[in-house]
Design a protein that fits this description.
binds uridine-diphosphate-N-acetylglucosamine; binds calcium ion; UDP N-Acetylglucosamine Acyltransferase, domain 1; alpha/beta; Spore Coat Polysaccharide Biosynthesis Protein SpsA, Chain A; 2 domains; 25% strand
């Protein structure tokens, strides 16, 4: 079966209050959109379409020819954004995943499980949901007395009772591709925001007697979105924890993981000890048995095995024209503290 994906990334990100376009804000060294596309790529997709509008050039420069692009000139809503990919996708067989470009914690495994669930339910549409403590800002999942999904109600359109529902839409969906594109033109914009809402496709399918399903995430944080910088900081903390745990499991010691900052692109050898306040950034590769910090700032460097990177030091390989020289500098400076 063909699997397609559409990533929505045309919005301005007004709530970020930034000149940098929302999906280009970095999380642990990579722009948000890169994390989302990175979760999709292992799924061997037939088509991977990114819908761009605001900041289109920056996104295209970031992702290059790894994806296809659809242009949304005016941001009329998420349903309208998906519709912009019709020239590539309409009329094709298969299943289409739709994701927002601002949910960077989503993982391939979760998307695979969503696809499996969607197929096992033989649904026309399946939404990935989370049970959260604070549902503010998210679409609420409205189920009927049998527990079946009726519709999704946006925060701004919700009644007081609906606002209390703590099962939310992550904005991640799985659709029968043909049924999705047959239904999108019927979505209206008669709502509080005057936008064409993608979540309304679920209610429309359901009214036509189609099966609509909801799959609850095991990890509610995976579906979290970034609308402002408070959420950005929160998600960065969660991602940092994920990265640090991966390194610790593969043999790296961290004196205080909460105060150790490692980009998702960095590699570290076994038995290396990272002291608090250490930043390992960019393309940095740390060898085995090194000691780094406290308070070391290491960017785009190759650090050989058994090197001591001194406390309160800063190395930036990207400022050296020759990478070899950068290696020497780290080792030489380390000598003051004795190489192991
Ligand atoms: C959206 C969902 C909400 C869900 C939440 C999950 C709608 C109407 N609401 O709300 O149900 O709980 O995500 O995080 O879908 N975008 C476009 N073109 C547009 C509008 C938006 O490309 O015309 C893109 C944005 O760049 C963004 C994504 O779609 O990446 C979601 O838009 P956003 O405004 O962040 O929606 P939310 O209010 O978070
Ligand atoms: Ca959002």
């Amino acid at each position: 079966m063909n699997i397609h994906a559409v990533v929505l990334a045309a919005g301005k990100g007004t709530r970020m209050n930034s000149t940098l376009y929302k999906v280009m804000h970095p999380l642990c060294g990579k722009p948000m959109i890169e994390h989302v596309v990175g979760a999709l790529e292992p799924l061997s997709l037939h088509n991977l379409v990114v819908v761009v509008g605001h900041g289109a050039e920056a996104v295209k420069q970031q992702l290059g020819s790894r994806v296809q692009y659809a242009q949304q000139k005016e941001q009329l809503g998420t349903a309208h954004a998906v519709w912009m990919s019709k020239d590539i996708l309409a009329g094709q067989d298969g299943v289409t995943l739709v994701l927002n470009g601002d949910t960077p914690l989503v993982q391939s495994e979760t998307l695979r499980r969503l696809l499996d669930y969607h197929q096992s339910k033989q649904a026309a549409a399946t939404v990935l949901t989370s049970i959260v403590e604070d549902p503010t800002g998210y679409g609420r999942i409205i189920r009927d007395e049998n527990g079946d999904v009726r519709k999704i109600v946006e925060e701004k359109d919700a009644t007081l009772g609906q606002k209390k529902v703590n099962e939310i839409s992550t904005g991640i969906f799985c659709f029968d591709n043909r049924k999705l594109f047959a239904t999108l033109p019927n979505v209206s914009n008669q709502n509080a925001q005057g936008e064409y809402y993608l979540p309304d496709v679920l209610a429309l399918l359901q009214e036509q007697g189609e099966r609509v399903a909801a799959h609850v995430t095991e990890d509610p944080e995976e579906g979290s979105g970034v609308n402002d910088r408070v959420q950005l900081a929160h998600l960065e903390r969660l991602m940092r924890k994920r990265i640090n745990e991966r390194h610790m499991r593969s043999g790296v010691t961290m004196i205080d993981p909460a105060a150790t900052y490692i980009d998702s692109t960095v590699t570290i050898g076994r038995d290396t000890v990272l002291y608090p306040g250490t930043f390992l950034l960019g393309t940095t590769q740390i060898g085995e048995g090194c000691q780094v910090g406290p308070h070391a700032h290491v960017k785009d460097m190759v650090v050989e095995d058994y090197t001591r990177v001194p406390p309160f030091s800063s190395f930036d390989g990207s400022t050296y024209s020759d990478r070899g020289q950068a290696e020497v500098a780290a080792t030489r400076d380390g000598q003051d503290y004795g190489r192991n």
